[in-house]
């Protein structure tokens, strides 16, 4: 399997504070990788760099074989829209757009709106009956599934999920985890930040961070990909 | 996001509706601005005509008299009157003055074309009635000071005495002019000429001319050349000040517009800044999803300009009403809403709104999705 993400001595400094220090990482296509660590370990910073939402201080970031280290803001935006899907802990849905319109919004910023495709992906996450509802009319689990549908609608190469069950009750947590596993089995590359060991155990591989250093990589689960 | 896509307009319209109370504040700020621009714009464009007419109520603006050592007779006066451009001539009247004797005392007798006095001296305040016909030889008007001195009032009779001749005159009105007329006995021109033994002679003539384009000066110069035996000169007190007053009023209106527009811009700017703060997550999310800087700019501009356009259209209506109100109050006449007011109001309102978005747009574009979406 080809590498979709590779970091070489990746570092990020905020003034005198080093948030990430010399991270070397490889993620292959179809892998489900969990990034874990305590608060302040640097996992969110790493996620921001991998999703091109922030710029690195030192080192190199290769995404799909392309050197993204020196991308300008517009290149990072374009790369993110074209090749990544983002799932947020707090869902971040536009409150005055319906579930369907929220999904279509991602299509709009990507290329063109295809309502049929948006409906199909919402059906894929089990929301075919809630498409015209506003976020406030949906449960937390349903909102997270809209968020996942939005992340999937442009067929991204990598799905990034930042604490995807952090705001959900247990029932909805299981629902979302089941969905992520399903996507993984369907061949999606998933990178997930979590502090929850149970979630980490679902991944093919767990990367542990501590004080900005990569301290451990372990296979947590029988990987789907060979 | 392409502005032409229905999703874009859905995003814009729902964003406006969701924050309708803030949008209402923005709308009102822009509406007030549009009302003022429209009303003052309408008056500005109409003011030349209106003010010229108003200032003309101060009376005559051209004096015609004899050169030193010459006399002004009625044929010369009529020839000059006929040489005036008909479109500019509003009123004309000849005057003769001389001492006359009443039973009580000697007074200054003023003969005038009484039918023209309403136009030549509209500022006269009259107690009783105005003498307005030239053939009336049984009535007279008295200057206020003279009337006070002689203790006369409308309805009383005075008698002109000249040798054995007597001419009874019933006082029809008491004139307060604020000038020397207040000391005169005023009768019609023919009676005064006869009584003063000055048939067909005038002391001077006065003309009221249209001065919208400042043409009094040029007309005076032309008449002076044509009638060298006469002294023809503008009455500067009125005609020269006319332009200065107009200029000052227009400047004042411009200043009011600028102040109101500044306040509108400030209000819209403040509202938008607050809105961007409230919507930081929305814009950060859009950026995270791939929205370009242009897409964010387009959205904020579309929302703001939409509100501004509606405010400007509503402002045109309010402005037209305000212009009429001001026209009736100040000029006692309606103000014509000329077509340039429409693009002027729309253009300035949109410009103000666009200017007000500069800082909020910069703030929205500076949002860092990673930090905002994390709630930092």
From TrEMBL, chain A:
Organism name: Pseudaeromonas paramecii
Record keywords, A-Z: ATP-binding, Nucleotide-binding, Transport
Domain of life (superkingdom): Bacteria
An annotated Gene Ontology molecular function: ATP binding
Domain ABC transporter: 5-226
UniProt cross-references to Pfam families, sorted A to Z: ABC_tran
Protein name in UniProt: ABC transporter ATP-binding protein
InterPro entries: AAA+_ATPase (IPR003593), ABC_transporter-like_ATP-bd (IPR003439), ABC_transporter-like_CS (IPR017871), ABC_transpr_LolD-like (IPR015854), MacB-like_ATP-bd (IPR017911), P-loop_NTPase (IPR027417)
Signal peptide: none
SUPFAM superfamilies reported for this sequence: P-loop containing nucleoside triphosphate hydrolases
Residues in coiled coil: none
CDD domains: ABC_MJ0796_LolCDE_FtsE (cd03255)
From TrEMBL, chain B:
Topology in membrane: Multi-pass membrane protein
Domain named MacB-like periplasmic core: residues: 25-211
Membrane-crossing segments per the record: 24-45, 252-276, 296-321, 341-361
Signal peptide location: none
Domain ABC3 transporter permease C-terminal: 255-369
Principal place of residence: membrane
Pfam families noted in UniProt: FtsX, MacB_PCD
UniProt keyword annotations, A-Z: Cell membrane, Membrane, Transmembrane, Transmembrane helix
Keyword Transmembrane among record annotations: yes
Subcellular localization, as worded in the UniProt entry: Cell membrane
Domain of life of the organism encoding this protein: Bacteria
PANTHER family found in the cross-reference section: ABC TRANSPORTER PERMEASE YTRF, MEMBRANE COMPONENT OF TRANSPORTER-RELATED
Record-stated family: Belongs to the ABC-4 integral membrane protein family.
Protein known as: ABC transporter permease
């Amino acid at each position: 399997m080809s590498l979709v993400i590779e970091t070489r001595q990746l570092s990020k400094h905020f003034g005198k504070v080093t948030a990430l220090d010399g991270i070397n990482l490889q993620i292959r296509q179809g892998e489900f990788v969990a990034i874990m660590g305590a608060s302040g370990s640097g996992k969110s910073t790493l996620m921001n760099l991998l999703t091109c939402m922030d710029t690195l201080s030192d080192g190199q970031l290769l995404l799909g074989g392309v050197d993204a280290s020196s991308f300008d803001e517009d290149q990072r935006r374009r790369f993110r829209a074209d090749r990544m899907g983002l799932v947020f802990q707090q869902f971040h849905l536009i409150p005055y757009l319906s579930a369907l319109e929220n999904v279509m919004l991602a299509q709009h910023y990507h290329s063109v709106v295809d309502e049929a495709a948006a409906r199909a992906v919402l059906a894929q996450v089990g929301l075919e009956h809630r498409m015209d509802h506003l976020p406030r009319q949906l449960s937390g689990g349903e909102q997270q599934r809209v968020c996942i549908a939005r992340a999937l609608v442009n067929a991204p190469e990598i799905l990034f999920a930042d604490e995807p069950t952090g705001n959900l009750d247990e029932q909805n947590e299981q629902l979302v985890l089941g969905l992520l596993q399903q996507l993984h089995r369907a061949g999606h590359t998933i990178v997930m930040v979590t502090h929850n060991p149970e979630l980490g155990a679902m991944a093919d591989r767990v990367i542990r961070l501590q004080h900005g250093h990569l301290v451990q990589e372990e296979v947590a689960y029988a990987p789907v990909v060979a | 996001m392409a502005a032409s896509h229905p999703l874009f307009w859905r995003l814009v319209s729902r964003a406006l509706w969701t924050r309708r109370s803030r949008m209402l504040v923005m709308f009102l700020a822009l509406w007030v601005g549009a009302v003022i621009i429209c009303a003052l714009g309408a008056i500005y464009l109409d003011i030349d005509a209106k003010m010229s007419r108003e200032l003309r109520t101060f009376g005559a603006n051209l004096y015609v008299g004899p050169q030193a050592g010459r006399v002004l007779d009625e044929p010369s006066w009529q020839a000059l009157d006929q040489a005036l451009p008909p479109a500019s001539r509003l009123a004309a009247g000849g005057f003769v003055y001389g001492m006359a004797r009443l039973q009580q005392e000697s007074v200054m007798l003023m003969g005038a074309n009484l039918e023209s006095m309403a136009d030549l001296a509209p500022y006269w305040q009259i107690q009783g009635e105005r003498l307005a016909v030239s053939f009336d030889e049984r009535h007279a008007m008295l200057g206020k000071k003279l009337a006070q001195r002689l203790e006369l009032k409308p309805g009383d009779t005075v008698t002109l005495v000249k040798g054995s001749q007597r001419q009874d005159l019933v006082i029809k009105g008491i004139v307060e002019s604020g000038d020397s007329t207040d000391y005169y006995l005023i009768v019609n021109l023919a009676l005064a000429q006869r009584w003063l033994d000055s048939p067909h002679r005038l002391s001077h003539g006065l003309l009221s001319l249209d001065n919208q384009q400042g043409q009094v000066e040029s007309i005076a110069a032309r008449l002076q050349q044509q009638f060298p035996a006469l002294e023809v000169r503008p009455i500067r007190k009125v005609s020269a000040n006319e332009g200065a007053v107009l200029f000052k009023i227009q400047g004042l209106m411009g200043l009011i517009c600028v102040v109101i527009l500044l306040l509108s811009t400030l209000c819209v700017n403040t509202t938008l800044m607050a809105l961007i703060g409230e919507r930081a997550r929305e814009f950060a999310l859009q950026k995270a999803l791939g929205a370009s800087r242009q897409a964010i700019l387009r959205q904020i501009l579309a929302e703001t300009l939409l509100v501004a356009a509606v405010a400007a259209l509503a402002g045109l209506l309010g402005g037209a009403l305000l212009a009429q109100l001001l026209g009736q109050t100040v000029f006692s006449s309606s103000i014509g809403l000329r077509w340039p007011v429409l693009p002027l109001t729309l253009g300035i309102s949109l410009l103000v709104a666009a200017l007000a978005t500069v800082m909020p747009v910069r703030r929205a574009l500076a949002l860092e999705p990673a930090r905002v979406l994390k709630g930092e």
